[in-house]
Amino acid sequence: MEIIDGLAAERTRRLTPLQLARLLKSAAAEKKAWDPVVLDVREQTSVADYFVICEGETDRQVRAIADGMVEAAKAKDRRPLAVDGYEDAGWILLDFDSVLAHVFLPGERSYYDLESLWAPAAKRRKRAASA
Question: Would residue 2 count as lying in a domain?
Fold first, then answer.
């Protein structure tokens, strides 16, 4: 019986991808990230379920935001599978498997414009489904 109770407790402690995305967004906001958003990309790609996108004013703040996200995830026993761009800090990517966190400098965020890139596909799918 203890084994079953332990498995049930472990299952309830695990974060869903949406919960993880919200946790990362909250951690970014705590580090004063600008305009943190969560994009649901489940219908558009198999790469991830959610993107968390935000920006910091300087490379130092971008690193602090990424560090805050990693620390918040570690507190819930989650660690990124990969981290890319930390040294340059123009665009840091944190790969949590089902959630990808993108932390940009403002110029990088506007240049790549992931929100616009992924949003039109979702709108087209919704229109097609309702037609």
Answer: no
Q: Which ranges constitute the DSSP H helices of 1-131? A: 2-13, 17-30, 59-75, 106-112, 114-130
SS3 assignment, position 22: helix
Residues 6+ apart with CB under 8 A from 60: 89
pLDDT at 14 > cutoff 90:
no
At 86-97, the pLDDT tens digits run 999 999 999 999
The CATH number of residue 26's host domain is 3.30.460.10
Residue 76, in any domain of the structure: yes
Domain count, the chain: 1
Residue 14 DSSP one-character state:
S
Structure tokens at 71: 């620390």
Q: Which residues pair with 82 in a beta bridge?
A: 95
Q: 96: buried, middle or exposed (CB in 10 Å: 19+, 13-18, 0-12)?
A: buried
